[in-house]
Design brief:
The chain has 99 residues and is mainly alpha-helical. It has five helices and no strands. It has a single domain, classed as Up-down Bundle (AhpD-like). Helix content is 63%, strand content 0%.
Length: 99
């Protein structure tokens, strides 16, 4: 839960998490090759987009809170999960990519 690199993950999940970690830590280093690596793992364009959007949303809220010295309200993670499993799930282009 705290270190995905030590978890037993399938190659697609590990690839998405590696991509998200790189995008978070060094966004200026992202290149087409990183997207191509996700596609080589079998991810569709929609799944790559979902990975980027979810990473950006997570980072945006963390940086907003850190930058303003704001502590996130209890339940923010539950709200995010509700968004991911509710309204976001209804957007086929976002979380229900075509196989």
């Amino acid at each position: 839960m705290h270190d995905y690199t030590k978890a037993d993950l399938d190659p697609q999940t590990r690839g998405m998490l590696d991509f998200a970690a790189r995008l978070t830590r060094d966004p200026g280093s992202m290149k087409k090759e990183h997207i191509d690596a996700l596609k080589a793992l079998g991810l569709s364009d929609e799944q790559v987009l979902s990975t980027v959007l979810i990473t950006c949303r997570f980072n945006f809220f963390n940086r907003l809170a850190n930058g303003l010295g704001v502590e996130l309200e209890p339940g923010w993670m539950e709200d995010t999960m509700t968004w991911l499993t509710g309204p976001a799930r209804e957007q086929e282009w976002l979380l229900n990519p075509q196989s």
